[in-house]
């Protein structure tokens, strides 16, 4: 299965643009539910050129392209941008996508735009509209890439974030099934648009929907060793594919499997993945991996390996959860592991209704000697270790207590 997926992605990669070309533009990758009051919107306008900058809004993925795209256009105009709705969608407009992606007027507008925003929905609609059948760029996508290379910003939320990497999750099964049997050939993974370059995999709604496990499986199948998991109402702004900054209410998880050990075959088993949680204002050097804390946290370091480290007295002595895939549970555990006495937490992922039907999974989060972080409005946690191993749950899982 994994060999098939890697061969498929190798074919996809031959149709993508040369990664050696320099890129002057920025990316704004939002994890979904990107609220209008989020400061990332004004940052998008600034990155596009400020007041009067032309930003094209692509509503392609949306089930209501006119309505959802129109609301974003109006919001960007309220922030001073010259925003326009690009009529590229399967419904809601007079002309089909095939006509728009070759229209000289829209191609020229894209080439000279200061920014783009890709609306959420079904990410497969973006690739269906913007890529030719052979995987090469349509004229409109080529113009977007040219504008981005010259300095334009490309923003996207939810589906608009998923397409940022060269490979994307397009239709994933339930996470337990994915951990059990791996990606479904021709369905789970597909080509993205690759704006972030070849080195990073991107997933969205990350903490809110407990997606870290599915991302690890996708990274393994597609040959990635570094991933970005962007949570809801949060964005990561990336400049020239080198410098990144987190903006928003939740966080961004970094996943690094370069030193991890993957046991071959399925169910999924992997030890030594390095995970970090970045918060609003934190900065990341994508080349060196160096993290600089946001100004609200810089004065409150957390250094578990230092002699003066004081664990959080309000945390329990043993950290554990029966559902590590629950909303926001993974992020909470990361912060707690960093500040706890033992520096370790155990989480389970299983089907409580029928525990014997498929494998369960035990996740172990642990501090490392180089783990550190900063406190503030949300904890930044760097360099924790994550192990994933399949286990068998007892069946029945429980029995009535005796009186």
TrEMBL record:
One Pfam family here: Peptidase_S51
Residues annotated as signal peptide: 1-20
EC number: 3.4.15.6
One GO molecular-function entry: peptidyl-dipeptidase activity
Keywords noted in UniProt: Hydrolase, Protease, Serine protease, Signal
Catalytic activity: [L-4-(L-arginin-2-N-yl)aspartate](n) + H2O = [L-4-(L-arginin-2-N-yl)aspartate](n-1) + L-4-(L-arginin-2-N-yl)aspartate
InterPro entries hit by this protein: Class_I_gatase-like, Peptidase_S51, Peptidase_S51_cyanophycinase
One GO BP: proteolysis
Entry similarity comment: Belongs to the peptidase S51 family.
Function comment: Exopeptidase that catalyzes the hydrolytic cleavage of multi-L-arginyl-poly-L-aspartic acid (cyanophycin; a water-insoluble reserve polymer) into aspartate-arginine dipeptides.
Name of the protein described by the UniProt record: Cyanophycinase
The species this protein was found in: Niveispirillum lacus
């Amino acid at each position: 299965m994994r060999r098939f997926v890697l061969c498929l992605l190798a074919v996809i990669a031959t149709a993508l643009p040369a990664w050696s070309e320099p890129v002057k533009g920025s990316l704004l990758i939002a994890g979904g539910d990107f609220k209008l009051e989020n400061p990332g919107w004004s940052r998008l306008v600034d990155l596009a050129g400020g007041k009067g900058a032309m930003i094209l809004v692509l509503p392609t993925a949306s089930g209501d392209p006119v309505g959802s795209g129109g609301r974003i256009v109006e919001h960007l105009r309220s922030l001073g941008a010259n925003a326009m709705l690009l009529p590229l969608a399967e419904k809601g407009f007079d002309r089909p996508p095939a006509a728009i992606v070759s229209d000289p007027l829209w191609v020229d507008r894209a080439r000279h735009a200061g920014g783009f925003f890709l609306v959420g929905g079904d990410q497969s609609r973006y690739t269906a509209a913007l890529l030719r059948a052979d995987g090469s760029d349509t004229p409109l996508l080529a113009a977007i890439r040219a504008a981005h290379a010259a300095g334009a910003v490309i923003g996207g939320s939810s589906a608009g974030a998923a397409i940022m990497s060269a490979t994307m999750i397009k239709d994933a099964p339930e996470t337990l099934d994915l951990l059990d049997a791996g990606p479904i050939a021709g369905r789970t993974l597909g080509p993205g648009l690759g704006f972030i370059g070849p080195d990073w995999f991107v997933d969205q709604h990350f903490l809110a929907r407990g997606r870290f496990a599915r991302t690890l499986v996708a990274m393994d199948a597609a040959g990635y060793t570094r991933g970005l998991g962007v949570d809801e109402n949060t964005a990561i702004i990336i400049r020239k594919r080198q410098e990144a900054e987190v903006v928003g209410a939740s966080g961004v998880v970094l996943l690094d499997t370069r030193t991890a050990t993957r046991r071959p075959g399925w169910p999924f088993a992997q030890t030594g993945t390095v995970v970090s949680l970045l918060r609003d204002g934190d900065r990341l050097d994508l080349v060196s991996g160096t993290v600089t804390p946001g100004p609200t946290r810089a004065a409150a370091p957390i250094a578990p390996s230092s002699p003066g480290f004081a664990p959080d007295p309000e945390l329990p002595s043993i950290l554990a959860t029966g559902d590590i895939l629950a909303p926001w549970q993974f992020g909470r555990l990361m912060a707690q592991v960093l500040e706890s006495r033992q520096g370790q937490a155990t989480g389970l992922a299983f089907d409580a209704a029928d525990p014997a039907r498929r494998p369960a999974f035990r996740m172990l989060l642990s501090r490392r000697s180089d783990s550190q972080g900063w406190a503030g409005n949300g904890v930044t946690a760097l360099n924790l270790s994550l192990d994933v191993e399949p286990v068998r749950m007892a069946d029945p899982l429980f029995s009535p207590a005796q009186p």
